[in-house]
């Protein structure tokens, strides 16, 4: 598997470059835009994620010798194009929504300005990162809002492919999750990691008590003991017997949770373990979390539902050429005419219109104005500009990269949640919570 | 991002090893099993995929200096455990279903025998690969069977995360897809790649004719021209005008496909382009492909639906300790008692019972017999053994690795499809096509 990102690419991107180099159009300056035609069915808002990862992938989007040799051997492009690919590095500009921003149908999430050849090469890597990560973040944000401030951890690595798992942990964290079970996500992105033991650890031991003693011996009484391998009531009793009333937490991974959690809380309190917390982790999603809001749960762990976008594993974003220069140097807006899949051509800028209570009311997309335009905002102080410059001449703004960029995205999402109308947080299906207006 | 697989791991695997090293249970020989409690709702069979990738990941599951340093810094485990991790390499045995095999609820898809510590470390990497890849392969197999022999290409890289895309292309190929758009999948796994141009290529040019001329100039008349950027009828006319009647194919990516395809076929024939093929690629899944069975389509391209498992993006497999030795060296079957998530403890072997027409009738799981047992088969010639040894003393059988392993898996799936009852291929929801019986 390559260390670069250059072959995370659909073949047609290279063949388009090949043909466009031959007729000279490859060098036409172009504007590509990533956007979603709609939100997943019934969702009220989406959360942008993947941007920080994408910028890093674009910065190391180079073809190494082995990759070029494979392309040569398989005659994917002409030899002259291989030389062009060997020198490829992205040198253009990228604007877009901040990572962690809310988005709506038509929001111009990412705009790439470069020659056609430089920009078209990035289609797959742009969409792979934004589609998957935004799908996870959009689902995760809903779970966070129904968790009502209780901590929530991502534990779904086993339900998505091994490297997607690292991206999923990051996207969920940006959306407000507090921790992940995934160690690589901890190392690469600075996300707090958590986890103590599975049922296998109890089954490994001759008795449940033996397993609890081993765990408390290794991690002290503040650890989290998994109490449902055999009988939950006996498990809780044993856990407090072994760790004492200072036991950190018990984890419950099965059963009718509202009932079980209430009983366990009562039992813990009766045993004097009043500060022992209850963590639940049994196939949770936003609906089951909401159903536990009245139960004395202290923390949630979510797996499958968050890493698979809770029913919508791809955010449905597309990447379209919206403008290009012609031979005289003038910009021409372009768009395909298909009725089913219409898109709006032209350079775009975007702002969110807020009312006097600073609540979002409208997603405004200015067509024709570039993402570097500013005049529109000064006229109306209740427009919040949405697009920032992410990359200049091929150099990413370091504020959006790495661990710091991930933390910043998480903070931005938190602030943005404050401006959404409360109807945004209803779990039921509905329309996007604010309309998108083209101007 | 690490080059090894060692941190594609949930933290609790390392903390379990930590505590088990402390009390000595880490060295108990153990048997872990991966299986699915059920198929995705309404599916009749599943297809195992990911095994070849998994074996490669296990072979390079080592902790490098930077990873160990991170674990030390974050005090994930005790220093003594870090030393153990530094020397970690898997030295155990793995049996399992061949990649490409059909599976049913309870099928013992993978069995790992090693010390507890060696085996438990692999839980996340085992499940991430099997769950995702099998999800894609299981969806892809349904699409292949309704495509009725017409070629079908995977083009969904943009709808899943960038590295999952490579795994998805491979899983779809094993399930009978013919090609992928993903270049890295071509390079790493030897899968044929395809693709010519997107709408952006047409929009880049001043006219559609200019775009078609550029493409034919670069790739000759046998190329595939995308004809629906503006008006399909004019696009088809122009395509044949530019490439001549020897035009290889036209691609249609929008519209009401059964109607449009019939009209385009008629138009192509009238223009003398009787050998020009029609490829369709518009949000297809197994249901829309089935709906096109009567239309003159020559090839399909499938994106979102296949890489997201067509509604079931994770196959739901779990990884459980099913047996371990006790202090006297005897094997003890183990299983958690939770009613909701019961699993069957013990060593297992599996065979498929075929009737006299060599049609599968029953998935037999022999509990207590190890995967290396043989006696049961000799007694009844209509039992097809399902488990093979994939890894011996930490060394993978090379027949299951790399490009050759991928081809072999594709061939095996093709053979297995012949033995499934015809009801397996009904698209409607139903029960698993054969029952699973424990003996």
CATH level-two architecture of the domain at 11-137 and 312-438 in chain A: Alpha-Beta Barrel
Number of strands of chain A: 19
Mind summarizing the main beta sheet of chain A? 7 strands, antiparallel
Named CATH topology of the domain at 11-137 and 312-438 in chain A: nicotinate phosphoribosyltransferase
Largest interface summary: A-B, 111 and 111 residues
Low-confidence stretches of chain A: none
Strand line-up in the sheet with most strands of chain A: 13-12-1-5-3-17-18
Helix amount of chain A, in percent?
25-40%
Total of helices of chain A:
16
Q: Would you summarize the structure shown here?
A:
The structure is a homodimer of 439-residue chains. Chain A has 439 residues and is an alpha/beta fold.
Task: Give the topology, please.
Two copies of one chain form a homodimer.
Chain A: H1 11-23, E1 29-36, E2 46-47, H2 51-59, H3 65-73, H4 79-86, E3 93-97, E4 102-103, E5 110-115, H5 116-120, H6 123-146, E6 152-154, H7 164-174, E7 179-180, H8 183-189, H9 199-204, H10 208-219, E8 224-226, H11 232-243, E9 249-252, H12 257-270, E10 277-280, H13 286-291, E11 299-302, H14 304-307, E12 317-325, E13 331-333, E14 348-354, E15 360-367, H15 375-378, E16 383-385, E17 387-392, E18 395-396, H16 402-419, E19 436-438
Parallel strand pairs in A: 6-7, 6-11, 8-9, 9-10, 10-11, 15-19
Antiparallel strand pairs in A: 1-5, 1-12, 2-4, 3-5, 3-17, 12-13, 14-15, 14-16, 17-18
Helix pairs in contact in A: 2-6, 3-4, 6-7, 7-8, 10-11, 11-12
């Amino acid at each position: 598997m390559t260390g670069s990102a250059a072959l995370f690419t659909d073949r047609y991107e290279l063949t388009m470059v090949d043909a466009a180099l031959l007729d000279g159009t490859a060098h036409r300056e172009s504007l590509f835009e990533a956007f979603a035609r709609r939100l997943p069915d019934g969702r009220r808002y989406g959360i942008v994620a993947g941007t920080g990862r994408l910028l890093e992938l674009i910065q190391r989007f180079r073809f190494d010798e082995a990759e070029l040799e494979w392309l040569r051997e398989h005659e994917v492009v002409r030899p002259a194009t291989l030389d062009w690919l060997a020198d490829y590095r992205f040198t253009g500009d990228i604007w877009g929504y901040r990572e962690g921003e809310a988005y709506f149908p038509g929001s111009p999430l990412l705009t790439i300005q470069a020659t056609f050849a430089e920009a078209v090469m990035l289609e797959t890597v742009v969409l792979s990162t934004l589609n998957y990560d935004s799908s996870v973040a959009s689902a995760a944000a809903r779970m966070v809002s129904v968790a009502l401030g209780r901590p929530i951890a991502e534990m779904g690595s086993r339900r998505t492919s091994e490297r997607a798992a690292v991206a999923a942990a990051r996207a969920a964290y940006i959306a407000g999750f507090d921790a992940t079970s995934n160690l690589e996500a901890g190392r690469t992105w600075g996300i707090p990691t958590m986890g103590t033991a599975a049922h296998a650890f109890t089954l490994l031991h001759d008795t449940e008590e033996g397993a609890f003693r081993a765990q408390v011996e290794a991690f002290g009484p503040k650890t989290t003991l998994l109490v449902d391998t055999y009988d939950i009531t006996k498990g809780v009793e044993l856990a407090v017997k072994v760790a004492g009333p200072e036991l950190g937490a018990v984890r419950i991974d099965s059963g009718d949770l509202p009932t079980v959690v209430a009983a366990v809380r009562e039992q813990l309190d009766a045993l004097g373990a009043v500060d022992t917390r209850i963590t639940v982790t049994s196939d949770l999603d936003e609906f089951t979390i909401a159903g536990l809001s009245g139960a004395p749960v202290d923390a949630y762990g979510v797996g499958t539902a968050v890493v698979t976008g809770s029913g919508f594993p791809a955010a449905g974003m597309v990447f379209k050429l919206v403008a290009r220069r012609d031979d005289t140097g003038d910009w021409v807006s372009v768009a395909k005419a298909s009725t089913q899949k219409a898109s709006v051509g032209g350079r775009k800028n975007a702002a969110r219109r807020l009312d006097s209570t600073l609540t979002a009311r409208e997603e405004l997309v200015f067509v024709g104005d570039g993402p570097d335009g500013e005049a529109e905002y000064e006229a109306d102080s209740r427009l919040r500009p949405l697009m920032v410059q992410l990359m200049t001449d091929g150099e990413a703004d370091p504020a959006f990269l790495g661990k710091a960029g991930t933390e910043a995205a998480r903070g931005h999402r938190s602030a943005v949640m404050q401006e959404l109308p409360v109807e945004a947080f209803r779990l039921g299906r509905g329309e996007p919570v604010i309309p998108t207006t083209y101007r």
